[in-house]
Write a structure and sequence with these properties.
The protein is α/β, with parallel strands linked by helices and 329 residues long. It is 48% helix and 20% strand. The chain folds into two domains: 102 residues, no CATH class; 200 residues, Rossmann fold, CATH 3.40.50.410. Helix 1 runs antiparallel to helix 3 and helix 6 packs parallel to helix 7. The longest helix has 32 residues. Keywords: Membrane, Transmembrane, Transmembrane helix.
C-alpha cells in the first residue's frame, strides 16, 4: 500500500465557508468601527492618565487578550470548517495475486450422493491450504452449472462451500443449489462436466497456471456431448492439469483405471479419496507449478481522519473561553 496523503471529501464546504467567514468578519468590523466612531468623545488633559505605567500595562494586556481571542476564534472556526469538509486519508492499494487458478469440479449424480458431502469438506480443507490463488466451483450431473466463478475472496468461497454442504446434506431450503444440473439427457455426463470446468478459465489470461480438482467416480450414465477423452484433450490443449479424486475405488476397476490414465495424461495426478495423502498431494502438486505475483488493478482506499481538526478546534475553544473570561474580569 502507498499513502497518498490527506484529502477532503467536500472541499467546496471549506471554500464557501472561508468566503462567508471573511465577509462576515468584514461586516462586523465595519459595524463596530462606525459604532466606535459615533461613541467617541474628546477628553481634555487625558495624557496624564494614559501615560501612567498601570494604564500602559493594562492596555498591553487587553490587546494581548483580544489578539488571543481573535486567533482562537479563527482557529476554532477554521477547524470546524475543515471538519465539515470531512478530511480523509487516501491510500493507494496495489494488490497482488498469485498466478494460479483452481477449479473445483464436483460430480453430483446419484452414484455420488453418499460421497458429495465428504468431498465438499475435502474441498474446504483444500481451500484452507491455498493462499492468494483464485478458486471456482462447478457442479455437474446431466448438465454442468457454475456455482461461483474464479475468485480470491476466500470468505465468499467458504460461505458458498457451506451452502453446498447443506444442500448435499439434504437441506430442503438449499434445493436451488442444484439448479442448472438437470438440463441434459441421462445423468453423470463426465465429459461434459470436465469440459465445462476446463472452459471456465479466463480465455485471454495465459500467465496463470491452471488446475482442475475433478471429483467423480467416472460412472457414465447417458450420452454426453463431449466424452471424457475429448474433454481431456481439451484440457491438454489449454494447458490445464487435472487432479482426479475418486471416492469409489474398490480395486483397479475399469472406470478407475481410465480416470487415472486420463488425468495423468494432462500432467495431473490421481488419488482415491481413501488416500490420506490426497489433500497434501493435490496441494503440493498445484503449488509446484511455477507461479509469479501479478499486480491487480490499483484502487484508492479512503478512511476518515478527523483527529487534527478536532484537536485544533478543542485548542481554539479553550483559547476563546480562557481569553473571554480573563477579558471579562
Amino acid at each position: 500500500m502507498e499513502l497518498n496523503g490527506p484529502d477532503l471529501e467536500w472541499p467546496a464546504v471549506l471554500a464557501v465557508g472561508t468566503v462567508v467567514a471573511i465577509l462576515g468578519a468584514y461586516a462586523v468590523h465595519r459595524r463596530l468601527s462606525r459604532r466606535s466612531a459615533r461613541a467617541a468623545a474628546p477628553v481634555a488633559n487625558s495624557e496624564a492618565l494614559t501615560s501612567l505605567p498601570e494604564y500602559q500595562r493594562a492596555l498591553r494586556l487587553h490587546r494581548v487578550r483580544m489578539a488571543v481571542l481573535a486567533l482562537s476564534a479563527v482557529l476554532l472556526g477554521g477547524a470546524a470548517l475543515v471538519g465539515a469538509a470531512r478530511p480523509l486519508d487516501t491510500t493507494i492499494d496495489k494488490p497482488q495475486t498469485r498466478s494460479r487458478d483452481i477449479m473445483l469440479c464436483l460430480d453430483i449424480s446419484g452414484s455420488m450422493a453418499a460421497y458429495d458431502a465428504t468431498l465438499v469438506s475435502t474441498f474446504k480443507t483444500l481451500v484452507k491450504r491455498f493462499e492468494g490463488e483464485r478458486i471456482g466451483l462447478v457442479i455437474f450431473n446431466s448438465s454442468a452449472a457454475t456455482v461461483f466463478p474464479l475468485t480470491d475472496d476466500y470468505d465468499f468461497i467458504n460461505d458458498e462451500l457451506d451452502t453446498a454442504a447443506r444442500a448435499l446434506g439434504g437441506d430442503p431450503e438449499s434445493e436451488s443449489f442444484f439448479a442448472g444440473t438437470f438440463n441434459g439427457r441421462g445423468t453423470s455426463l463426465i465429459g461434459d462436466g470436465l469440459a465445462t470446468c476446463v472452459s471456465s478459465f479466463d480465455k485471454v489470461d495465459t500467465q496463470r497456471a491452471r488446475s482442475v480438482v475433478f471429483a467423480t467416480d467416472n460412472h457414465l450414465a447417458g450420452r454426453p456431448i463431449i466424452d471424457v477423452e475429448q474433454a481431456t484433450e481439451l484440457a491438454k490443449a489449454k494447458g490445464v492439469r487435472v487432479y482426479g479424486l475418486n471416492p469409489e475405488e474398490n480395486g483397479p476397476d475399469e472406470e478407475a483405471v481410465q480416470m487415472r490414465e486420463l488425468v495423468t495424461d494432462t500432467g495431473g495426478h490421481y488419488f482415491p479419496m481413501s488416500d490420506q495423502t490426497a489433500i497434501r498431494g493435490i496441494v503440493d502438486s498445484v503449488e509446484a507449478q511455477e507461479a509469479t505475483l501479478i499486480d491487480a488493478a490499483s484502487r484508492s482506499l479512503y478512511s476518515d481522519n478527523p483527529t487534527l481538526p478536532i484537536a485544533l478546534a478543542g485548542l481554539g475553544l479553550l483559547g476563546v473561553i480562557g481569553a473571554s473570561r480573563r477579558w471579562a474580569s
